[in-house]
């Protein structure tokens, strides 16, 4: 009887332990000590990262994305020629290569999928293009169905990120200082708005976050060190706010990188490469404006990408040049960050829960 009780107790312990841990995949640059995509265990209760392991060897997987059912991972290969690959997630969390297709442009730097998991969009930084792909049920990528080229005699494009929202796609072009809006029509995406905001400055829109209802979009500007807040209206789009991500006393060079909304959409976080910080903003849900409330040092160098964990209680930062991942707790009442600890990881540039 005692043996049976001990067995049941141990089984319960392991069930609780496994439920408390989730997988974190890490995209990297492989021109240093990294070999590809890595995985770690993240403790949802303590915020602890452990068990760093190579999930699959692949070249420069600088941005990675899940399928909605979390059976597959997709990665751009930011290398000569440019490609995007599909991987199946095995039971042990390691990745199995499925197939690879051209990214249709040099320097692919971002990939995202729609909610149905049957389409992907890839942004090509050096190529100045974005490509749309259909995805098979087995997770494999087909060749691109549409390619948008933005280079012209007047402008050098650097497409940097794209997101699906319902039947639309938004694409941020850091080179031409635009965020394009496309709408699905007859199974193809057609340009609906040349840019959802207008500027005469060289802001360099890089990444953006869209509220769940699609009413507000927040664009982080790499060159401008700022966030542009945009409201969707019946007649188009309207800029409602513009805020610096930097401390007034900061005098060095800075390149903004990533931006995320909190789970409750009350706070916005943006990363500064140079100041090496996360800028924290409180968001007004009624008019979409934001107010800076904290500048948190990242305890590392060059925070290219960061993410919030599935519980919304932690924020993790990938510090590219210092080869570490920093973990912060998020105060539920204020949205502010507190540094907890960091772990070493080879050239981390993308974090995926």
Automatic annotation (TrEMBL):
UniProt keywords, alphabetically: Carbohydrate metabolism, Glucose metabolism, Signal
Entry-linked InterPro entries: Cycloisomerase_2 (IPR050282), Haem_d1_sf (IPR011048), Lactonase_7-beta_prop (IPR019405), WD40/YVTN_repeat-like_dom_sf (IPR015943)
Signal peptide as annotated in the record: 1-19
Bilayer-crossing regions: none
Pfam family, one: Lactonase
Keyword Ribosomal protein included in the entry's annotation: no
Family: Belongs to the cycloisomerase 2 family.
UniProt cross-references to PANTHER family, sorted A to Z: 6-PHOSPHOGLUCONOLACTONASE, 6-PHOSPHOGLUCONOLACTONASE-RELATED
Protein name, UniProt field: Lactonase family protein
Source organism per UniProt: Mariniflexile jejuense
Phylogenetic lineage: Bacteria, Pseudomonadati, Bacteroidota, Flavobacteriia, Flavobacteriales
């Amino acid at each position: 009887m005692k043996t049976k009780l001990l067995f049941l107790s141990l089984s319960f312990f392991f069930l609780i332990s496994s439920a408390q841990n989730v997988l974190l995949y890490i995209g990297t640059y492989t021109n240093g000590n990294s070999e590809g995509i890595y995985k770690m265990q993240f403790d949802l209760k303590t915020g602890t990262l452990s068990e760093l392991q190579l999930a699959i060897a692949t070249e420069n997987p600088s941005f990675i994305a899940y399928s909605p059912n979390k059976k597959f991972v997709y990665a751009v290969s930011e290398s000569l020629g440019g490609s995007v690959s599909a991987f199946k997630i095995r039971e042990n969390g390691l990745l199995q290569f499925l197939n690879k297709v051209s990214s249709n442009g040099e320097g692919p730097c971002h990939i995202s999928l729609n909610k149905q998991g049957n389409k992907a969009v890839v942004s090509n930084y050096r190529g100045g293009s974005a490509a749309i792909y259909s995805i098979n049920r087995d997770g494999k990528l087909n060749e691109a169905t549409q390619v948008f080229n933005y280079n012209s005699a007047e402008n050098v494009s650097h497409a940097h990120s794209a997101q699906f929202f319902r039947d639309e796609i938004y694409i941020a072009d850091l080179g031409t200082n635009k965020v394009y809006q496309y709408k699905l029509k007859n199974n193809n995406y057609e340009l609906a708005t040349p840019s959802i905001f207008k500027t005469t400055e060289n802001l360099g829109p890089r990444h953006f976050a869209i509220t769940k209802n699609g009413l507000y979009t927040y664009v982080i500007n790499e060159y401008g060190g700022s966030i542009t807040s945009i409201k969707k209206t019946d007649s188009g789009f309207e800029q409602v706010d513009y805020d610096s991500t930097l401390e007034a006393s900061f005098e060095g060079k800075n390149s903004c990188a990533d931006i995320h909304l909190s789970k409750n959409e009350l706070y916005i976080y943006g990363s500064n490469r140079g100041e090496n910080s996360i800028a924290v903003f409180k968001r007004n849900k009624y008019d979409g404006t934001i107010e800076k409330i904290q500048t948190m040092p990242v305890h590392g160098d060059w925070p290219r990408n960061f993410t919030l964990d599935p519980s919304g209680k932690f924020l993790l930062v990938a510090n590219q040049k210092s080869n570490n991942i920093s973990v912060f707790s998020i105060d539920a009442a204020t949205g502010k960050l507190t540094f907890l600890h960091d772990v070493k990881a080879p050239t981390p540039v993308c974090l995926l829960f």
